Task: inverse folding
C-alpha cells in the first residue's frame, strides 16, 4: 500500500518509529516545517500545498490532522483516493458523513476509522444488530485540558453528537463508539485534578448482555494531550490491512 499522511504532528512522529508495512509517499501539514522534519524518517516528499499533496501517486490518505482538516479535505481526497480518518468527530455530522460516503461509493473508494484511544470497538459493533442497545462513555481528564485546576468537575453531560461540537479535539472517542454501535452515545466528561492519564469507561448493554471496559490511557511521551494508544491503533490497522489472516471482527 502506498499512502500519504495528512497531518505531521505528534501521532505522525510516533508511528514513524514503527514498520507500518506500507510505503509513505507524501506528507502534508499546514506547518511545512513539520512535514520536512518527518520527510527523512519516512523517506517521503514534504508537500508545500494540499494541491501538490493530492496529486502524488499513492492509494490512501491517512488523516491525523484535525476535525477541520477532515471537513476541508475529505471530499476532494475521496474523488481519487481511499481515506483513513482518525479525527472521527467530523463524521458525527450525518449530512457531512452521507456526503463523503456518497463520494467514496461513486469513486469506489473506502473510508476506515481506527479504534483510536479505545479498546473494544471491534466487539461493540455487534450492538448495531441488537434490538435493545445502550451505550454510555465516561471520560476523565486532567484539568489542564479544560482550564479547571482545583476541583473535580463535570464538564459535560449529554449526547456524543453535542459533545463533539464543544470539544472536537478531546472527544473523538465518543463519536467512534457511536459510529461503531449505531447509537448516539450518552457521555460524561470529567475534569479531575487527581489523575494524570486520560481514563475512558465504556458501558455497553444489548441483547447479548452487558459489558464494562476501563481504559487508562498513558499520554504520549512527546505530547501529553495525545493518547499513545491512539497512535498504536493506526499501526495495528495497517498491520491488519496487509494480512490474509485476521482475528476479531
Result:
Amino acid at each position: 500500500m502506498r499512502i500519504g499522511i495528512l497531518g505531521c504532528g505528534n501521532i505522525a512522529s510516533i508511528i514513524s518509529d514503527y514498520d507500518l508495512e506500507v510505503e509513505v509517499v507524501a506528507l502534508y501539514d499546514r506547518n511545512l516545517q513539520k512535514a520536512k522534519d518527518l520527510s527523512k524518517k519516512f523517506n517521503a516528499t514534504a508537500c508545500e500545498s494540499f494541491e501538490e499533496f493530492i496529486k502524488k501517486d499513492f492509494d490512501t490518505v491517512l488523516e491525523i490532522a484535525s476535525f477541520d482538516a477532515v471537513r476541508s479535505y475529505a471530499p476532494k481526497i475521496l474523488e481519487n483516493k481511499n481515506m483513513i480518518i482518525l479525527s472521527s468527530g467530523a463524521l458525527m455530522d450525518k449530512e457531512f458523513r452521507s456526503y463523503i460516503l456518497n463520494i467514496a461509493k461513486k469513486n469506489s473508494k473506502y473510508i476506515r476509522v481506527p479504534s483510536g484511544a479505545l479498546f473494544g470497538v471491534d466487539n461493540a459493533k455487534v450492538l448495531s444488530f441488537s434490538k435493545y442497545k445502550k451505550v454510555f462513555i465516561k471520560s476523565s481528564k486532567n484539568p489542564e485540558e479544560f482550564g479547571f485546576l482545583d476541583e473535580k468537575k463535570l464538564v459535560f453531560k449529554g449526547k456524543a453528537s453535542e459533545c463533539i461540537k464543544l470539544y472536537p479535539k478531546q472527544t473523538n472517542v465518543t463519536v467512534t463508539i457511536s459510529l461503531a454501535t449505531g447509537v448516539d452515545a450518552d457521555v460524561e466528561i470529567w475534569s479531575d485534578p487527581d489523575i494524570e492519564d486520560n481514563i475512558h469507561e465504556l458501558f455497553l448493554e444489548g441483547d447479548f448482555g452487558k459489558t464494562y471496559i476501563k481504559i487508562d490511557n498513558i499520554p504520549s511521551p512527546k505530547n501529553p494531550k495525545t493518547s499513545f494508544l491512539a497512535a498504536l491503533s493506526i499501526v495495528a490497522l495497517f498491520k491488519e490491512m496487509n494480512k490474509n489472516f485476521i482475528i476479531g471482527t
The CA atoms of residues 82 and 108 lie 9 Å apart. Residues 2-116+232-241 form a domain with the Rossmann fold fold (CATH 3.40.50.720).
